[in-house]
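Annotators were shown the component list below and the corresponding predicted structure, then asked to write short factual statements about the assembly.
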Amino acid sequence: MTNAISLRSLTRRFGDFTAVDSVTFDVPEGSVMGLLGPNGAGKTTLIRMLLGLLTPTAGEGQVLGYDLRTKTEAIRQKAGYMSQRFSLYNDLTVEENLLFYGRVYGLRGAGLNDRKDELLGWSGLGDQRRSPAGELGGGLRQRLAFACAILHRPPLLLLDEATSGVDPVSRRKFWDLIYGLSDGGTTVLVTTHYMDEAEHCDRLGMILAGKLVALGTPDELRHAHAGGGSLDQVFVNLATQPT
Amino acid sequence: MELAMHLQSVSKRFGTITAVEGVDLKVHRGELVGLVGPDGAGKTTLARLAAGALAPTAGRVEPESRGRVGYLTGRFSLYPELTVWENLTFFARIYGMTGPALTAEAERLLDWVGLLPFKTRLAGALSGGMRQKLALACAVIHQPPMLILDEPTTAVDPVARAAFWNLLREQSHRGCAVLVTTPYMDEAEFCHRVGLLHQGRVLAMGTAAELKARLPHRMAVLAPAAPGEKLRRAEAMALAAALPGHRWSQPLGASVRMALDASADLLAPAGYTLTQVEPSLEDAYIWLAGEEVRA
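Structure shown to annotators:
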């Protein structure tokens, strides 16, 4: 199986602070990988290196087969990215937001129009197509931002704290969309500090103080680190064990 | 139990937006009450109404004069350039404390929240969990009879969250009425009573166990029988939907979580296991939110 992401001892320091400390893992194509850890653990720094926005201090990494030190432009063209603070234009309609982001990604004419209609249907936003984005509720806004992030059909999707913060019903719909993409071959990497979000992932990496301290399926982690208990307990046990 | 706070049919509108609608809520002395809900459910507005920082558009908040409420938000403003000690004594002076009484109480509180060894550290250099503990010490230094906390544990890691909830329990044990909002459903377990907040309304109020018991379904997990086998989502979802008594199903990692009629038998399809699981508060929330829509 090919890996969409492959990292070897990836490290990033800021002065004498090590934000990401020798992280090694692979993400197979088409899988959903979760990076779990508290704020400040290094998740966002890691995502920024994957996108080529930060250069590693040490270590190697490949994203979609490209070296993340040298092929940053190619990576950014092929990866979709959505953060918790996703930016939509509140005064533009749902449709106009999609058209705007489509043009940013270089889509034009009939191709852009077809893709826009396809995503309106896919995200369940057809009825709101002419509503200003600023009038949407949290769950619908999140789905619009998601549609904007995948306009260019990225084979890799990075969701940085983007899956939480909405009501449980909307969140389930959001995960239906993520699973749909994954089943179609898209690789998805999500970061979260909500343990119940992590249950949705095929595999999880637990990050503490920049280090990857555990890696496996949710079930594997529960059995290895919490005697079959909750992921919350996994976290507590890993965080409080002597190093 | 003595009533510490009573919200009666409280509503709050901002222009055309109704942030809180017809909320009834009681908090007694020594009681730890949680308000659980997602972003936009009205948690912060309700916390501000309860603290007297916002006036309701309709309804009443009693008692009206509340000079002695401790209030803490997730975005609490400590002074990052002051030390732990300086932050705490600053708030103590605001509340009129001075001299040896102030020093003794500040020492006691820092010891209580476990920050005594970090007295001289700048607040800006504390971790998220430590910052919230210091903020809690600042909020209770004047020994308020009521404590209102708006998302104090958001974005704080699980270890620090559990420690923080223990401190809140201790506040309630000493007789303080505590009202806490949180987006984390699992934190309901720490509260004496919980209100589920949805679109500005309280869907239901009770202990976590009572709320889960309102779900009229049995919950089950459908998973491939062979350990470690990858879930074929489309197939598993179709099988789940065909099971007798199926109500809803949702892929969840390597399995499908589903709700069945309470009377339905658990009949696993070939190649799969079907295991009954405890309902979660989220299952109850989704059901109750749906009830609201159906009503």
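Statements collected:
1. Chain B has two domains: 3-211, 216-278.
2. Chain B touches chain A through 33 residues (CB under 8 Å).
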